[in-house]
Amino acid sequence: MKGPTIASILLIILVVAGQALLSAQQKLTKEPQPSFREDAVSNHRHPEVDTDVFLYINHWRESLPEIGHGGLIERAILTPGDPLNPPKKGAVLKYITGYRRAALEPRTETKFYADAKEQCFFYVTAGTGTVETKARKAALEEGAALVVPAGVEFRFVNTTSDANLEMILVTEDVPAGFVPNKVISVGSYHNSPPSLGMHWAHIGRGIEYDVPPKFANPMGFAVVSIDRMDMAQPHVHGPGCEEVWCQLKGRSLLLFGTRLMWQEPGEAFLIPPNNCVPHASINPTDEPMVWLYMGNRHDHLNKKT
Fold this sequence. Notes:
mainly beta, about 300 residues, Jelly Rolls, 23 strands, single chain, about 40% strand
């Protein structure tokens, strides 16, 4: 039996190319799901339906400063909005009430502050200081994490003379009937053993607290790094997942949907929960890359119930 002729091979190539061109020219009414297949609809960009990923990433420098939590200088990174149809850049949060950068200037302190309806998570990105409550006092440095339960009065003190105490601040409201902890939880990722292999390249370290925190949302935090010249697995998330990645160290590349962009320290993004936008962080350098990960997994909670 004779094999395929050159003419027949060329005909097949032309047919496949024509189908791909036709697919690319079609105007879609629904965003296609991503795929690694060569003939997938998503192998072309479709601006008419593709998620505008630039609405889902923001830097605190883009926001005006405000005073909050007894005297911290706060600048919003992500704010409440609609994660499927953001009304403006960064307005993508559904469950938590704020994702901010908070700073306290050298040799200053906040006033004692408490909120009976709000809980706070703080992660120290730079500087040193202390947190004080009526019951205790704890030292803070880079890598420290703090959870303040609803109703607990607290204040910060910056003990340095030449540097800000800088933190990432995440807030959540507590629902009726929720019983918060009575004391703060203080921890760090530095002594946490690494977890390897998730999404190809993630090196994750959980936060070990002195008192287990109690969140109103099904959420948790970890510090994640990617080794030099490596990248994470592109993957998507669906309804009920509120996942945020904030760059802490290094300047990485981010594959976000059909776009490639830089991510800098102080910049955070939320993955659109529509199963259509793959994300993957890439370390193209010889420098360390570190992120603060927040997973607020209402989708997992729904599976359990």
